[in-house]
Design brief:
By secondary structure, the protein is α/β, with parallel strands linked by helices. Helix content is 39%, strand content 21%.
Length: 648
């Protein structure tokens, strides 16, 4: 596809100038911006950035939530041949240093005072920074720093320049080519420094178009942009596909209003990682437990009907007259109101990706009429590698290769991908690039999996994480930590899990409870607690979690390949794993190696046979202060099961 994002914007502005391009909620009111206004803003922004000295091929950092002006900034940079680099808005200042220095960034466009403070904090460590522009002026009136000014001023200067040089913007756009670098996304960096993934206009637009073709997306879609723009998943759905399809992107007022905004907008096309769908379902179940007996009874009755017949109906199968009538009745009294409560009353296509989703969770959404599907991809593949057709959505696979994708499985089980959506390179890292891109164009995903008999891809774990049990009754058995972790996270009471077992004689796990779900569970049993740490160490909570672990063990015993991955011992952590404490990445992936070093005393206790262990941990609060949390953690043994077909 020989186009650029700037040309796509111009096309929409020419063909549908008065149609809505973006909406932003401000002070509780949705403000709409049409395509003509968006193009004008981008033109002024580009002219302003040019006047400020932004050069073709130069990197520009964008930090903030989903905001029209920040989207316009990325488009303006691309129009000038510069390269936008979105960074996570919730990253602490220190996490911004490497990306900024690696990309030799001079220009930063940020959302608000919080992000300005970060840029000013790292300025001494990032000597290239010369300009910092902010969108929201609140709290910044008395700030006086070299190169600090507002986006408003930048746009005003650009408007004057555009009037003086009316052909400048179009001339710059005309210089652009599909193979030019369009954006750079930094990986989450589970080990070491993050890597800058370089993508061209062609790679991003090609994959955005492939996804749009697969699900027949049009300009009539409504999308809620609420996840970090620095995550390529959000960027593809609310930027690349937005410009390919011309649909409306809606920006919530704040993180706190997302659920309200979701219901107000009623998106037709929705994307979220499993944890968001888990959180939504948990909130529903908590509310239902507190409902009256009549309402609760009706809910459970119709949900049983939905679980029995709903998925088959979603897959286009014939279910008979009586089940159809019961589903219609259920839709009137339960499913329809529930979809409306969740904000999914208009959803035509919903996707989840990033982690495995629990079969019960997956079945729940599809059973109430929400077309929830899974996809497979990564930052390096511009997201779209495998997608699930509407009538072939399954919880245990991630779909079939989509348009323009080839897949093969290496001898060691690693998935290799070839498509036009692959990264150009890792920035300034030819060694890492050579490790993942072969000379003949195959990308090493580092994921272990296989294609099943129906052509669907099934992912087991990361290749490097798949290990072996050494010693004990399971000597030599395969150990897939992510597989074990995900199966435990399928339970609503478990939020995070870290599993260990490679080169050890058994599998042990550390668990984070879901504070809201377990808190509600405890309150309904009149179980008092004083915060997360106290609740996590309750005997009753340990018993609840033990039942979850043993249920997973029984399930693993059914799989001859992974029966040796059953959990022998566990503990419940005294604090929630947190990206600010270095335990999770900004995309909420567990940093297993870092956690092993930080909590080595707990791992020693798990494998040493101890029944409890004292731990004190330093934590970082949201306001930047540090403190400590301490507790004596209990450690329990769990029941394991003989593999199916083997004598107990």
């Amino acid at each position: 596809m020989s186009t650029t994002f700037s040309r796509l914007l111009a096309t929409h502005a020419a063909q549908r100038p008065s149609a809505s391009a973006m909406r932003e909620k401000e002070y509780g009111i949705w403000q709409s911006m049409d395509w003509a206004t968006m193009l004008q803003m981008v033109t002024h922004m580009a002219c302003g950035l040019h006047q400020a000295g932004l050069q073709r091929g130069e990197h520009l950092v964008v930090v903030g939530a989903n905001r029209p002006r920040l989207y316009a900034t990325m488009l303006a940079a691309q129009a000038l041949g510069a390269i936008p680099v979105p960074l996570y808005q919730d990253a602490v200042a220190g996490e911004c240093v490497f990306p900024i220095n690696n990309a030799e960034v001079r220009f930063c466009v940020v959302e608000d005072q919080e992000q300005v403070d970060k840029m000013l904090e790292v300025r001494e460590q990032c000597p290239h920074i010369s300009h910092i522009f902010y969108d929201d002026p609140r709290g910044l009136r008395k700030y006086d720093a070299p190169g600090l000014s507002s986006v408003e001023e930048l746009l005003a200067a650009g408007e004057v320049f555009a009037k003086q040089h009316p052909d400048f913007y179009q001339q710059e756009v005309d210089k652009g080519h599909a193979d030019d670098v369009a954006a750079m996304f930094f990986t989450s960096g589970t080990t070491g420094n993050p890597k800058g993934v370089v993508h061209t206009h062609n790679s991003l637009i090609n994959r955005a178009q492939a996804g749009a073709n697969f699900d027949h997306l049009t300009h009539d879609e409504d999308v809620l942009a609420y996840l970090p723009p620095a995550w390529i998943g959000q960027n593809i759905f609310s930027y690349a596909q937005w410009l390919v399809c011309g649909y409306v992107v809606n920006c919530p007022e704040s993180a706190a209003t997302v659920m309200i905004d979701l219901k107000e907008i009623g998106p037709t096309y929705y994307f979220a990682p499993p944890r968001v769908f888990e959180g939504l379902l948990t909130s529903v179940m908590i509310r239902m437990e507190d409902a009256g007996s009549l309402k609760r009874g009706m809910f459970h009755y119709f949900m049983d009907i939905a679980r029995k017949y709903g998925p088959a109906k979603m897959d286009g199968q014939s279910i008979g007259l009586l089940p159809s009538a019961l589903l219609a009745l259920g839709n009137l009294f339960v499913y329809g109101p529930l979809r409306n409560t969740l904000g999914f009353s208009r959803v035509r296509v919903a996707y989840t990706a990033g982690e495995a989703i629990g079969p019960d969770l997956f079945r729940f959404y599809r059973s109430i009429g929400i077309n929830l599907k899974q996809l497979y991809g990564s930052t390096e593949t511009a997201v779209f590698v495998c997608l699930q057709p509407d009538n072939q959505a399954r919880a245990d696979t991630v779909g079939i290769p989509c348009e323009g994708v080839e897949i093969k499985v290496a001898d060691n089980g690693e998935i290799l991908v070839k498509s036009k959506g692959l990264l150009k390179e890792y920035y300034k890292n030819p060694t890492a690039t050579a490790e993942v891109l072969t000379a003949d164009g195959w990308y090493h995903t580092s994921d272990a999996g296989f294609l099943d008999a129906n052509g669907h891809l099934k992912i087991i774990d990361r290749v490097k994480d798949v290990g072996r049990i050494r010693g004990g009754s399971n000597d030599g058995a395969m150990f897939a930590p992510k597989y074990v972790e995900n199966k435990l996270k399928f339970f609503q009471h478990i939020k995070e899990v870290v599993a260990y077992g490679d080169q050890r004689d058994k599998v042990c796990v550390m668990i984070n409870i879901d504070f809201d779900a377990v808190g509600n569970w405890a309150e309904r049993r009149n179980l008092p607690y004083a915060g997360y740490t106290d609740l996590a160490q309750k005997t009753e909570v340990y018993q609840l979690i033990k039942e979850c672990v043993e249920s997973v063990n029984a399930d693993l015993a059914q799989d001859k390949l992974l029966a040796g991955s059953q959990v022998s011992r566990f503990l419940v952590l005294h604090k929630e794993l947190d990206a600010d404490d270095g335990e999770l990445t900004r995309t909420n992936k567990v940093r297993r190696g870092f956690i092993a070093e930080k909590y080595d005393v707990l791992i020693d206790a798990l494998y040493g046979g101890a029944s409890e262990q004292f731990i004190e941990t330093q934590v970082k609060f949201e306001d930047g202060r540090t403190g400590s949390v301490s507790a004596t953690l209990r450690i329990l043994d769990t029941k394991t099961f003989a593999p199916v077909g083997q004598a107990a």
